[in-house]
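thought: fold this chain, then report.
action: predict
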Amino acid sequence: MIKSMREPKALPKSVATLFFLVGVTSAFSFRAIIIVQHSHPSYVRLLWYLAVITNLIFFLFRYHISRKRKHAVHGQTLITKLEQGHALDPQERKGLTYLLTSIERSRENLNYLIIFILSISAIIIDIVITLRSQTGG
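observation:
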């Protein structure tokens, strides 16, 4: 057991919200490229860079959170202790509290839903625009 591990702490909701917005910006920008190419092709490259940079920031943040969670689980052997019915000491309880708080504050499920909705919307809009331009309407 690693007792020298720093106590993991959930990030404030404001930080989670900031990175949620970064993720949504990335998702929106990638999907907007499909639509903007029809009306303002000169903005495609700008959207591409915005999408890629915000995507990099968002997934680097998610990587950090994932590592923190795994470190809390493995560093305190929480799974084994829970499976074997062992009592948790205060440090281990803090680790488990961090994990649950981190999951509860995460907006990743909403982010996935927004990405899905934006993707479907971008596909539909692109099809409509393409069909209109092919039929002269």
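thought: worth noting. Residues 44-75 form the longest helix (32 residues).
final: tokens above.
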